[in-house]
Amino acid sequence: MRLVALSDIAELLGGVSRTRATEIVKRPGFPEPLDVVGNGRMRIWARADVEKWIRVNRPNQHSDER
Q: What is the pTM of this model?
């Protein structure tokens, strides 16, 4: 399973700022983080879940699908 952090999500959303990415991940319906690491400071998500959310909710965004 590939994982992403907030900075990766910002990139997947087309290079938005980390502040904007933070606003987006707080929206209802955005996938829940799988875990919080680094003394509770860093959330991680399943990349596939985030990419699916982007395809459904922000179809005009260009994610980096590797």
A: 0.86
Q: Give 16-46 pLDDT, tens digit per residue.
A: 999 999 999 999 999 999 999 988 889 999 9
Token duo for residue 19: 């502040």
Q: Token pair for residue 15? A: 């290079």
Count the residues in the chain. Answer: 66
CB burial class (10 A; 0-12, 13-18, 19+) of residue 16?
A: middle
CA angle 42, 45, 47 (to 5 degrees): 135
Tell me the DSSP string of the chain: --EE-HHHHHHHTTS--HHHHHHHHTSTTSPPPSEEETTTTEEEEEHHHHHHHHHHH-TTS-----
Q: Which two tokens stand for residue 20?
A: 């904007």
